[in-house]
Amino acid sequence: MEHLTTAQAAFVVGAPLDLFKKVVERAPIKPQLVKRGGRNIRQFGQAELVFLHAYDELKQALTPKSQSEFYEALRSSLKRGLAKEVVFGKQRYDIGQHLVFVERKLKELDKLTAQIDLSGKEPLIRGTQIEAHRIAALLDAGVTVEDVMRDYPSLKEQQIVAARVYAEAHPKAGRPYPKQTAKAAMRAADLSALDD
C-alpha cells in the first residue's frame, strides 16, 4: 500500500478533514514525514489508517499508554502479515472490521481517482475539459447531482461522485471555484430590464 496524504487518509478513515487533523494530533501514531517543496508532509500507512478508524473504540477501551502499546503491536502485526487480531501485553484486540473498512475505502479511492485526468495543469474529469474541483465546489454549495448533470449533460453521476471524492482527498489551494454554474446564474438572473 502506498502512503496517503492527510486529506486522502481522512477520506479513507471517513472523517471530515478538520476533525481528522485534530484526532491525528491527539492519537499516539507516527505518520511518516516526507519533505515536499520545502515542507514536511505527513504520510499515512495502513497501521495509521486502521488505528485511526478504530480510535473512538480505543479511547473508550484503553488508557493512553495502552493505546501506544496497541499502535506499536498493530504496526508489527501488519508488517508480519498477521491481520485479524493484535496482541499486546495480556490484551487482544480484533481489528478485522477496521481492516475490511480501510481496504474497501482504499479501493474506492483508487477507483474514483482513476476517473480524474492528472496530465494537465488542473485535474479534469477524464474524457472532458471539466475541472474536478469546479464540480466539487458546486456540490459543496448544495447543488444537487441532478442539477449538475442538467448543466453539464456530458457528465455521468459516477464522474460527479469521482470529482467530489478527488477534491475531498486533494483539496485545492488558491481561489475557490464559483458556487453555481453559469447556466444556473443565468436562469436565476432577472433579465427583464433588458426587454425595455
TrEMBL record:
InterPro entries: DUF433 (IPR007367), Homeodomain-like_sf (IPR009057), WH-like_DNA-bd_sf (IPR036388). SUPFAM superfamilies: Homeodomain-like (SSF46689). It holds the Pfam family DUF433. Gene3D superfamilies: Winged helix-like DNA-binding domain superfamily/Winged helix DNA-binding domain. It comes from the Bacteria. This is DUF433 domain-containing protein. It comes from Rhizobium mayense. The lineage of its organism: Bacteria, Pseudomonadati, Pseudomonadota, Alphaproteobacteria, Hyphomicrobiales.
